[in-house]
Write a structure and sequence with these properties.
about 90 residues; mainly alpha; about 65% helix; elongated
Length: about 90
């Protein structure tokens, strides 16, 4: 309701049980939230990137104490992922 009042579209799809509950209520269930599918696609890309980086144990556990070392590991992981992606394309 907070977002709807301000005209902000949802970026996360509504859960199936919420949809079913709203439909059971009929007209009293209200209207479904407006979904921004383009923003959802971008959000999905970001989440996949974070999940790819979290496969590196040092990044996932924040084992490195110095920020510069942690940042270096994150950059290295991103470069390796980028090179793997380049190798997959013909």
């Amino acid at each position: 309701e907070y977002l709807r009042d301000r005209g902000i579209a949802a970026v996360i799809p509504e859960k199936v049980d919420h949809v079913n509950a709203r439909k059971r209520k009929g007209s009293a269930g209200g209207r479904p939230p407006k979904m921004d599918w383009e923003a959802y696609k971008g959000r999905n890309v970001v989440e996949r990137s974070f999940n790819l980086l979290k496969q590196w144990r040092g990044l996932a556990t924040r084992y490195d104490k110095l920020a510069v070392i942690y940042r270096g590991a994150a950059v290295l992981a991103a470069i390796v992922a980028w090179l793997k992606a380049l190798g997959d394309t013909p």
